[in-house]
Amino acid sequence: MTKRILILSVFVVASCGLAYELIAGALSSYLLGDSILQFSTIIGCYLFAMGVGAHFSKYVRDEDVLARFIDIELAVGLIGGVSAALLFMTFSWMAGPFRTLLYVLVFMVGCLVGMEVPLVMRALNARQTEFNELVSRVLTFDYLGALAVSLLFPLVLAPHLGLVRTAFLFGMLNVAVGFWTLHAFRHELANLHGKVLRASSVMVVLLFGFALSDRMVAWGEQALVGDKIVYSTTTPYQRLLITRWKDDLRLYINGNLQFSSRDEYRYHEALVHPALQALPWARSVLVLGGGDGLALREILRYPNIKHVTLVDLDPAMTAAFTTRPELAKLNAGALSDPRVTVVNADAAVWLKDSGAMFDAAIIDFPDPSSFALGKLYSVPFYSMVKKHVAANGLVVVQSTSPFFAPHAYWTIDATLRDVGMRTYPYHAYVPSFGEWGFVLASPQQQFVPPTSYRLPMRFLNADTTREMFLFPPDMKRIEMEPNRLNTQSLVREFEHDWGQVIR
Fold first, then answer.
1. Which residues are catalytic?
2. What angle do CA 66, 42, 112 make, to 5 degrees?
3. Are the C-beta atoms of 348 and 384 separated by less than 8 Å?
4. Listed residue (431, 370, 325, 266) closest to 33, CA to CA
5. For residues 282 and 218, which has the higher predicted lDDT (pLDDT)?
6. What whole-number distance in Å separates Cα of residue 179 and Cα of residue 175?
């Protein structure tokens, strides 16, 4: 019976160990971007630390193996359990030490996890388990535990519990293994009362943290954005946060500002109207991204537009901007318009499978701050977009800032040109963001910037439009290589450019 308990403990501790690694990688990706870099360095640090821990396990005396195993479970449970909350609060209140704390915590957890399996194997060996049976059973349950959490984490835990609460949950599982071992081997352990008291104390701390997880996240996000939070949710794809200050609503995705209701009209007028003013014959429009419905609001002002297909990955985004009154008011109920078809899908997959053709395409994705987003600015992606747009139609891409991120901006322009489209880069000043960039492209049509608009505008007129298509010397064209899928140079350029201006 005691052998089975130890073997099942391996399953649980393997699940917990991988969970802490995934939580650290996901949280750092949310907060710092560049998911490949974050996961790669965290996995490397974690595996190295496990090796260090496995080495140090040999210094545990045979008679102390079970006692030290219990101590390690309590330590892993406490450190791993509070890790996500501690990291998030640190980033919110004082971002400077975040990276140092991240790798210190990953290393500490890795060392402790690295000691667990060797100690279990020694405990089983002391109970006369055959070596071949010992290794096969321990490794089998170790790998099964890793498989279980690798499936549960993205599908169930992260989207439904969130990263902070998930960390506390796995911390409690580690402590539960400690309690389980204490009970099963109570006759072999000294100072049982003291060990039970320590385990109970750690469990209380973790239960308290689990109960207050939402409040801690709210405190951290409040410190991060400053304004009152009116809506927040964690989805399988991102963290959505909507704040209000007086009459200003703001949307944040993974901590990055997406719009302010006070000046978003400048951004969305610039994104939509130069293209649609030039296409009075247009009947159908494709919108990729833009799940807030604000670009859609501008498109639907044209009576000649009969149908719009909006493709946005996250159903939580489109649902919030359809059902929440203050958000639906902001987009004028555009997502509920009968002319609109909303598709919640990966844009690249949808383009590959769809045969629909459009007169114009408006591409309004978040900035290419990660490789997952960078693929949506790549040569293969724009090649697919081109196939879905009429030869004399137009494509518009939001393209980050040509002032703050010039190398990234001109990489997007080069990528569109690489697929055989003519490009017409332009920019507009949006107070919340500064100077912001767009690229208009066409498979064949010669584009001339409008000198007037059929609809009334708050920002655009002949003068502002003319200025948008002129670039001063400090934003002049830079010759860049296209963003290809296998290298994703755009993500590196984006990170480097913004790294020079963000403190």
1. 364
2. 10
3. yes
4. 370
5. 282
6. 6
Average pLDDT over residues 26-31: 77
d(CA 316, CA 12): 32
Q: Which residues of 48-71 are buried (b: 16+ CB within 10 A; e: fewer)?
A: ebbeebbeebeebeeeebbbebbb
Reported as a single tens digit per residue, the pLDDT across 456-489 is: 999 999 999 999 999 999 999 999 999 998 888 9
pLDDT tens digit sequence for 409-443: 999 999 999 999 999 999 999 999 999 999 999 99
Residue in 359, 363, 348, 360 with CA at minimum distance from that of residue 439: 363
Residue 158 CA to chain centroid, in angstroms?
Answer: 11
Distance between the two ends of the chain, CA-based, in angstroms?
Answer: 57
Report the DSSP beta bridge partners of residue 381: none
Bridge partners of 442?
Answer: 422
Q: Is 410 exposed, middle or buried (0-12, 13-18, 19+ CB in 10 A)?
A: buried
- pLDDT, residue 33, reads 63
Residues composing the chain: 503
Q: CA 336, CA 215: separation in Å to the nearest integer? A: 33
Residue 447 has pLDDT above 70, yes or no: yes
Q: How buried is 14 (Cβ within 10 angstroms: 0-12 exposed, 13-18 middle, 19+ buried)?
A: buried
CA dist 77 and 60 (Å) reads 20
Would you state the structure tokens that stand for residue 144, as one six-digit string?
């099964």
Q: Is the dihedral of CA 211, 93, 98, 69 positive or negative?
A: negative
What is the phi/psi pair of residue 281, to 5°? Answer: -90, -5
């971002």: which residue's tokens? 95
pTM of the model: 0.77
Measure the CA–CA gap between 118 and 134, rounded to whole angstroms: 11
Which of 58-62, 124-128, 385-389, 407-411 bottoms out in mean pLDDT, i.e. has the lowest?
124-128
Enumerate the H helices of 300-455 as residue ranges: 315-323, 325-330, 347-353, 371-374, 379-387, 406-418
Say how many C-beta atoms besides its own lie within 10 A of residue 103's C-beta. 18
Note whether 283 and 304 are within 8 A (CB).
Answer: yes
